[in-house]
Design brief:
Chain lengths: 184, 199
């Protein structure tokens, strides 16, 4: 796959959140409004390319020479767990586990298998951009929906899920061949 | 944890349907009932394993090391389950894809409290696992039944494993990614309404 193709696939056609349903939990926990949501999701979006590249390093330099490919998951989790041991205090220390230990970050590490070094970076960055896009639009929608009336049972998380579902429906409209044609 | 609490966690306080914990793998694989049952079983296994170890972790591990150790343990258990399933049931495991290993970072596994006695922890883990499996199966039942017009189970003897529901034109969107979010949204609204009515 070309670089443009990879970016289009992971950002739009198969958006990490809305197409592959990875990272729905952090999306539902975002603060309202595009700006706070963007600030809150930057760490997670940055963790994705880091996880993709690190997973390539682990796979290529540690697991493959030792013939331990079957332990890929444990090795990746070990890598993700290491930053938790850093002496980080205060708010950053609380946010670190949330930014690292979620399906989106580990999922990108697992999905980028076989993409090569530069390929992994591109996949990770495209997935991170896809997450940011989904997060900003979603938080903006939620902010507006908060002012509308809704049945009591639907308020909060159920309404958030339906909003995300409608967004996913919109993202189904992105067609790979169409986008590739537009990009040349 | 009493028996009443155990029943409550299955529906009224279902972690998947009411609190929406541990969503990601659940949403993606709930397009076939058989996938949901398998994932639920693996989750129950991993929860019981971490539940047993959590007692030891609380007692002996320093607080800073608890979360990393729990993560490592969860990933080891999930890897074991993954190898086992690939060895004995590859055709059922293939559709789970990347979502089976992703169970290891599930909030339900990492976030469960390890406080209390050994039996309490074990019961709580069993309750959470069963609730996850029940919620996931319900989600898959609705999605597959309405989205594809079939219900896929394990093939036993002359039964091929797939039930066809006649007379329902399938709403394909429910089997696709948006459908997972729609169905879970309505199910969780329903579960909340039921829970409020009873308490």
């Amino acid at each position: 796959m070309t670089t443009v193709g990879t970016v289009l696939t992971f950002t739009f056609v198969n958006n990490v959140v809305l197409g592959q349903l990875l990272g729905v939990c952090p999306l539902l926990g975002l603060p309202r409004g595009p700006r706070p949501a963007l600030r809150a999701s930057l760490a997670l979006a940055a963790a994705m390319p880091a996880s993709a590249v690190l997973s390539w390093v682990v796979r290529r330099l540690v697991l493959a020479p030792l013939g331990l490919e079957s332990l890929e998951l444990i090795a990746l989790c070990l890598v993700l767990a290491l930053p938790l041991l850093l002496p980080v205090r205060g708010r950053a220390g609380l946010l670190l586990p949330h930014a690292l230990l979620n399906c989106a970050v580990l999922g990108v590490g697992l999905l980028s298998a076989g993409a090569g070094a530069a390929g992994s970076l591109v996949v990770g960055a495209a997935a991170g951009a896809g997450y940011l896009l989904a997060a900003v639009v979603f938080a903006g929608l939620r902010e507006r929906l908060d002012r509308e009336w809704a049945p009591r049972s639907m308020r909060g998380l159920p309404l958030s899920l339906l909003t995300a579902g409608l967004m996913a429906l919109v993202f189904l409209a992105f067609d790979r061949t169409l986008l590739a044609g537009l990009a040349g | 944890m009493k028996t009443a609490d155990f029943r409550g966690v299955l529906w009224r306080d279902n972690p998947l349907l009411v609190y929406l914990v541990g969503l990601c793998p659940a949403l993606a694989v709930s397009d076939r009932l058989v996938n949901a049952l398998l994932l639920g079983a693996v989750m129950l296994f991993a929860l019981l394993g971490t539940g047993i170890a959590a007692v030891g972790l609380e007692r002996f591990a320093p607080p800073r090391l608890r979360l990393p150790l729990r993560l490592l343990l969860a990933s080891a258990l999930v890897t074991a389950a993954q190898r086992f399933l690939w060895a004995f049931a590859p055709t059922f495991t293939a559709p789970l894809g990347v979502y089976l290993p992703l169970l290891s970072v599930n909030c339900l596994l990492l976030g469960s409290a390890g406080a209390g006695s050994f039996s309490d922890g074990l019961l709580e883990a069993a309750g959470r696992g069963a609730a996850f499996a029940v919620g996931l199966s319900l989600l898959a039942l609705v999605r597959e039944g309405l989205g594809a017009g079939t219900i896929t189970l394990f093939p036993v003897g002359s039964f091929g494993g797939v039930l066809n529901l006649r007379g329902l034109p399938p709403a394909r969107v429910l089997a696709a990614a948006p459908g997972a979010l729609f169905v879970l949204g309505y199910l969780s609204a329903l579960a909340r309404r039921r829970g409020r009515g009873r308490s």
